[in-house]
Structures are given as C-alpha cells and as structure tokens.
Design a protein that fits this description.
With 126 residues, the protein is an all-alpha fold. The protein is built from four helices and no strands. Keywords: Membrane, Transmembrane, Transmembrane helix.
Length: 126
C-alpha cells in the first residue's frame, strides 16, 4: 500500500494541518494540543513522507520498510535538533523533554501502522 493511502498517515496529516490552521490562521491555541500534537505527529508525517520517497526509488519498492534502528535514529535526530541545539541557539525554541516522549510515541505509531511492506508482493529471492 502506498503511504499516501494509509489511513493512519492520512489522519496524522489532517490533524497536523487542522492544528496549524487553528493556530496560524484562526489564532486558536488549545493548551496541550498546542504544546504536544505537532511533536506527536512529527514522526508519522516526516517518516511517512520519507518512506514513500524511498519506495519510489529503492529496488524493493512497496516492500521497503525502515528498521527499528533507522526509526530510533530519526527520533534521536529530531530530539537533538529541536530539544537541544535550537533552544541553545534561539530564544524562539524551548527545550521540553516531553516533546521527546511525543516523538517516540509517534515513532511507535509509525512503526506499527505505517511502516509495513506490501505483503502481496512475492519475494523473488525466497
């Protein structure tokens, strides 16, 4: 299945868009939603888009999936950039360790509900 047709990916993208619309256009900020929803959705959206791009170019196509290590590296990368480096360099960013937990939860959701290879394709090697 294409990542773009995955219901979990679609819901994550819609929630992200609605939250951004409410905050940026309408000026509506729901306390915990404002603080953590984007962080929770970051891994499913970013890794989902990246997975689809890899599937377009990788020889495994729809069977390609990210390993647990690759997903963990993505969480570590986001955590370092957005929770360590940017808060040290700019007053705009705030270090919040709960965000790291949200990245991790989102990554688990990505792993179980988006990061699935197409089971219908037969592996010619096996």
């Amino acid at each position: 299945m294409s990542v773009f047709k995955n219901p979990f990916f679609i819901v994550c993208c819609i929630l992200f868009w609605v939250n951004q619309y409410l905050e940026k256009v309408q000026g509506i900020f729901i306390p915990y939603v404002h603080a953590y929803l984007d962080d929770l959705l970051a891994m499913p959206v970013v890794l989902g888009l990246t997975l689809q791009a890899f599937r377009w170019f990788h020889s495994l196509k729809a069977k390609f999936v990210f390993t647990k290590t690759q997903i963990a590296v993505a969480v570590l990368y986001f955590s370092l950039i957005f929770e360590v480096i940017l808060p040290m360099r700019s007053e705009v960013y705030t270090r919040d360790w709960w965000d790291v937990l949200m990245y991790a939860i989102g990554a688990v959701g990505f792993y179980f509900w988006i990061n699935r290879g197409n089971k219908e394709i037969k592996d010619p090697i096996h």
